[in-house]
Model the fold of this input.
Amino acid sequence: MSESVSSSGRPARRGFTATRLAVSAFAGALIALAIAGRPLTAPLPETVRMADMTWVEVKSAIAQGYDRVLVPSGGIEQNGPHMILGKHDYIVSWAAGRIAVELGRTLVAPVVSFVPEGDFSPPSGHLRFPGTIGVSEPVYAGMLEGIARSLKAGGFKTICFIADHGGSMKAQADVAARLAHEWAHEGVNVISVDDYYVAAGDLQTQLLEAQGETKATIGEHAGIADTSELMAVHPAGVDLSRYSTFGLTATGVSGDPRRASLERGKALIDIKVQAAVRQISAGR
Done:
């Protein structure tokens, strides 16, 4: 076979070309390996909400000391004719964001919307009203455990459960206590932030009573406190013109939501935020 000739009449340097291509390929491979081996990092995002972050941003945040995470849970339940079903989700989502900012170096997981709401058959509790969506207590506890184990696997060292719904409190406390005990030797703490609901609830009642309200006007569900808080964080979710004066059986309301206000909502939700910040800061 005859040898190929260049335009100058000299033999083409096939060997040199092949060698140059091999060297280039080898250099490219080295660069690719260097890039692959380099830790992925990202600047801190302008949010504390994990759902709005990439995994690289979460990883970078944890590496920079953001190893505490809040796990808020709300609920989809009836709240009378004047207030939307997602009341708890809006309130606890807003509060968790505030708590995270005040604590510093804290992220917020997505809200757990499905919580214990009563028996299914025959329906009890809020499940007597169409639109309420509940899960059993074991299912809710299992969700919290799975979330906590996922967050621990990702590198978080302090996991804080924050429920805005009374029916969630027992399962939340049980799961937190069990996991905190299991992971104590690994330096991972799990906190049931009960003060957000229990201690803050007592302080809210004291505030409203000091303003002239009574146990009857304050109520226990969808009354002054709940309605005021939603007014403060999601006013579109409240329409008092739809309210009627029937009792709990007819409307699902306990208390007098007509006495709610935006100003009261700001003060009441701040009580919850500060109670949570104090408890989490104390690490208990």
